[in-house]
Automatic annotation (TrEMBL):
<dbReference type="InterPro" id="IPR007801">
    <property type="entry name" value="MbnB/TglH/ChrH"/>
</dbReference>
<protein>
    <submittedName>
        <fullName>DUF692 domain-containing protein</fullName>
    </submittedName>
</protein>
<dbReference type="Pfam" id="PF05114">
    <property type="entry name" value="MbnB_TglH_ChrH"/>
</dbReference>
């Protein structure tokens, strides 16, 4: 943006792990913001809740350790959930059951992240949920996950917008479910609408990051800033594929300036109460695993990625090991099951 109004940048660092050469200007950009302690890292592919500790996860940590020595991150974050796909590094982030075993796995992975990057670590709330009950439990589960590492939360307001629409909830009802004292960063973005075939007459809001920020999300932002006493960053997200025309680029610029103006109006009240600095960690040599969970994740991934019809998808789920289990598939919303398959199949093609 012009007039030097970008005060920090968020970098999805693991999206470039396989890239051997990046432009000089990009390295210079990262270096400038790193030197000013205004560079934050946002991971995508760690798959925090995979039931089995995978070689790809250890390599992800090794790469994070290396990139954290080259650039100074003010903090590093990951997505809540697990990645579909056989290796969980070429898939979609989807929800998991909220069980004590998965809580233990998530806490362990967060500690390993923090040890690798030597800075505060956090998690982003997930846009996708299978059921209203999952929506109601996510915030409390995040709080329990983050507590042992003094971790923080990215409050993605478009993700809340998706849940508000998909489960007929108000912003006030949703925001009250999350540990707002842990919010260090806020995301805003746009998305898309999908007409459901499984639930005629229903549209599903998708967090696709490919359009302008909805008016309602700016309203969320105006309210949320005052509710988050440790807020430090607000980030506008959009995929490059959504900036392929003059009009889309102009809309993005307009959204940034509107966000910036709103933040500047609030800045006098922002004084973060928690630095979320790392605490002394005790990390077991062997990461905790759950082989049954891992097999169920593989099974769910395979069902979602290969479904050719909704009826076939439902039959496969009912015949799977997920039936009558902690996954509670019997309470899943049909439109959200359909959406999960669409997400998984889209990511599989990447």
């Amino acid at each position: 943006m012009d007039a030097a109004r970008v005060e920090a940048i968020e970098w999805s660092f693991d999206a470039l792990y396989a890239v051997t050469k990046v432009p000089v200007w990009f390295e210079e950009l990262l270096t400038v913001f790193s030197n000013e302690n205004r560079l934050i890292g946002h991971g995508v592919f760690f798959s925090l809740f995979s039931g089995r500790w995978l070689p790809e996860q250890q390599q992800w940590l090794n790469d994070l350790r290396a990139v954290s020595r080259r650039y100074q991150f003010d903090h590093v974050t990951e997505h809540f959930g697990f990645m579909t796909g056989r290796d969980f590094h070429h898939g979609a982030p989807l929800n998991i059951p909220y069980t004590p075993t998965i809580l233990e796995i998530g806490r362990d992975r967060l500690k390993r992240m923090q040890e690798a990057c030597s800075c505060p670590v956090g998690l982003e709330n997930l846009a996708f949920s299978y059921s209203l009950e999952e929506v109601k439990k996510q915030g409390d589960f995040l709080d329990k996950l983050l507590g042992p590492v003094n971790g923080f939360m990215i409050l993605d307001l478009h993700n809340l917008y998706c849940q508000a629409h998909n489960f007929n909830l108000s912003f006030e009802a949703l925001i009250s479910l999350y540990p707002l004292h842990r919010v260090r960063e806020i995301h805003i973005s746009g998305g898309s609408w999908e007409v459901s075939g499984a639930a005629p007459g229903k549209t599903v809001r998708r967090d696709t990051h490919d359009d302008a920020v909805p008016e309602e999300v700016f309203g969320y932002l105006d309210n949320a800033i005052d509710l988050c006493p440790s807020l430090k960053y607000v980030v506008l997200e959009q995929l490059g594929a959504g900036l392929d025309s003059d009009s889309s680029r102009a809309a993005f610029g307009h959204d940034f300036l509107r966000m910036d103006d709103l933040i500047k109006q609030k800045n006098e009240t922002i004084a973060p109460l928690n630095s979320f600095l790392p605490e002394a960690l005790q990390i077991p040599a062997q990461p905790p695993e759950d082989e049954s969970l891992y097999r169920q994740q593989l099974e769910l991934s395979q069902i979602l990625e290969t479904a050719v019809s909704f009826d076939g998808l439902m039959q496969a789920l009912k015949a799977s090991s997920l039936a009558h289990s902690a996954w509670q598939i019997e309470s899943w919303d049909p439109a959200m099951i359909e959406t999960a398959a669409q997400i998984a199949q889209k990511w599989k093609k990447r």
